[in-house]
Amino acid sequence: RAREMQQSVPPYEMLPAEVTMEELPRSTTVMLEEPPKPPQPPQPPPRDHLVWSLFNTVYGNVCCLGLLAFVFSVKSRDRKVLGDYSGALSYGSTAKYLNITALVINTIIAIIVITIVSLLIAGAIRQMQSATYMGNR
């Protein structure tokens, strides 16, 4: 390393006789080299949640949230193909939150429908039992 430093220093030159030290500019230039950075481990590509968005679009498209999630998933995949990982991460995150919202709303609706149907069936069974009981009297 010391030899490399010596080779990079310019050779010594004598000042011409007509130039004095007072006439020369008084400045010093210091060149610093940054040490090479260690290689970064490769980052995994951002997720686009395309399959999840497709299922939400097909099986439970409440308020078009599944369709919006699908659109953002496709945009995320396009950004990833172009190499814009920050844009892909942003679109993928939006698709993820839309998918979560659609899933929660679909689950709530399914629970409400199952509850209403079971109450209707229970009421119909009671009606039939009471009619049978009244008929046997």
TrEMBL record:
Alphabetically ordered keywords of this record: Membrane, Transmembrane, Transmembrane helix
Principal location listed in the UniProt entry: membrane
A GO cellular component entry from the record: plasma membrane
Keyword Transmembrane assigned: yes
BP terms from Gene Ontology: defense response to virus; host-mediated suppression of symbiont invasion; negative regulation of viral genome replication; response to interferon-alpha; response to interferon-beta; response to type II interferon; type I interferon-mediated signaling pathway
Spans through the membrane: 50-72, 103-125
Annotated segments matching region Disordered: 26-46
Places the protein is found: Membrane
Family stated for the protein in its record: Belongs to the CD225/Dispanin family.
PANTHER family assigned to the protein according to its UniProt record, in alphabetical order: INTERFERON INDUCIBLE TRANSMEMBRANE PROTEIN (PTHR13999), INTERFERON-INDUCED TRANSMEMBRANE PROTEIN 3 (PTHR13999:SF4)
Name of protein: IFM2 protein
Organism field: Vireo altiloquus (Black-whiskered vireo)
Gene symbol of the encoding locus: Ifitm2
